Sequence to fold (193 residues):
Amino acid sequence: MLLNSHRAAMLASVAAAVWLTGCAGPRHHGQDYGGMSHRQMMAGPTAVAAVQPTAGNTVQGRVMFHQQGDQVWVHARMQGLKPNAEHGFHIHEKGDCSAADGTSAGGHFNPTGQPHGPQTGARHAGDLPNLRSDGSGRVDVRFTVSGLSIGSGPADIVGRGLIVHADPDDYKTQPTGNSGARLACGVIEAYRR
Ligand SMILES: [Cu+2]
Fold:
């Protein structure tokens, strides 16, 4: 009995690890990025963040970024979120997740000195759309954002932080969006080929 439950726990953790390998899965080899394939996206500037839970939290995952012209595709895969809920999601100024509560990542990445806001208006370059978790507390979503770049330029995201928050971003409260505690933090790194 003990052996069996131990084995089940091991299999569950293996399944979670496989699920979190992100872009590597075969299901991502189709035309997933606005008519572009995963392989085509990987040929361009690419960055990745391994997202780890802050103290007392369970959110973890992997986020990949692909630049295509003046757009950056974001592919976020995460688990351990509150189910069926929206979570604020931002690129923060510092690629520093050393603080137990994630505050070491600083404020939102804001290279153009704009107010915090929605994707459709004036906003911090690091403002991203809320993540919406499914009934199991997971997210697997792809979207594009403007105003960012990978590996060059003033809005380069490499070396910045990535934060998942406990609450939805209201897209208006300054300068945070009132999205609450930092559940997880990752450092955005250039993808090594
Ligand atoms: Cu944030």
Observations:
- The helical segments are 2-19, 38-43.
- Strands lie at 46-53, 60-68, 71-79, 86-87, 89-92, 131-132, 139-146, 161-165, 182-190.
- Residues 88, 90, 92, 108, 163, 165 surround copper (II) ion (CB under 6 Å).
